Amino acid sequence: MSSGSVLLLTVLLIGYIYWSLAQPTNTMQIRCKLKKPVKDPETECRYGVFINACGKQACISGPGEFCAESSTDTVLWGKCAHDLLCCRGQCRGCTAQGVCFDKPCQPPREHDMQHRSDPYMPQRHLNPLYAFFDYYGSE
């Protein structure tokens, strides 16, 4: 191998290492690179702006718009206006201007074995074959 080839290979290797170290390494850095800052807040943002975790201005979400509850997710989805509540990814409630989104907020199903007294638990029906094979059911 000639010295020119070794030098070229060394330069390419160092360039690749430098490039890979400059890339975002965690989820927050990647989200901050993906999200574009607001250019004109007065025309783009109906409900105002806030400074997100990246230090950039972002629009505040209004009724029925997407939102996030954790600070890392607010980079992508935003946060709700002051009078609204973020429930399962949507801003719910009414703003001071009278704009409302009143769809009820149901808690997420954690698993299939919730209590029967839970009002959000779907009605369960037994398989009709179960009664046929239930030996003790006739007592």
From TrEMBL:
Keywords: Signal
Pfam families for the chain: Neuroparsin
The keyword Signal appears for this protein: yes
InterPro entries for this protein: Neuroparsin (IPR010850)
Position of the signal peptide: 1-22
Protein name: Neuroparsin
Organism the protein comes from: Anopheles atroparvus (European mosquito)
